[in-house]
Amino acid sequence: MKALCSLILGGAVVLSSGCATAPQPVANASYVDLKGISDQHGNSFAFAEQMQTLIFVRDMDAKDLVDESLSNVNRQCLKVGQVVYLADISGMPSLIANFIAIPKMRDYDYPIWLDTEGDVSASLAAREDQVTLFAVSQGDFTNTEFVATETQLTEKLQALCGVN
């Protein structure tokens, strides 16, 4: 059953990501307002002042990079909002999101902030199959980086959060 759910979820994301238009990148020193965003447990976002790094994913391959990297990282930094993980799931069919993907995400021991409508993350820079890391200072983006490998992402997240 798990294999079937993963197959359906993966297929839905692949199909929906092909329909999305390319987002306009956010320039350095820009800001994204995460008010109104909830995590996989329905908690409202309340970490604007604590946030130092925003991890952003728009597709399944990037999500997989984050999942693999976080297994080697002290995830406490995500729980306290120092590092914020935002996933754009707006392209996913709502039935799959609500009945398969989000319930599966509830098994993770860290918050994944979900943009279900795509409004919040529409202007965030993203590259296919890569994770976008935004450095944040006093609410403003100060640097944008694209990470393509698990090793690179793990090194960067361990530098921010420590080793698991």
TrEMBL record:
Q: Which organism is it from?
A: Maribrevibacterium harenarium
- Identify the taxonomic lineage of the organism of origin: Bacteria, Pseudomonadati, Pseudomonadota, Gammaproteobacteria, Oceanospirillales
Which PROSITE patterns does this entry report, sorted A to Z? PROKAR_LIPOPROTEIN (PS51257)
Hey, what's the signal peptide range on this chain? Answer: 1-22
Keywords for the protein's UniProt record, in alphabetical order: Signal
What is this protein identified as? FAD/FMN-containing dehydrogenase
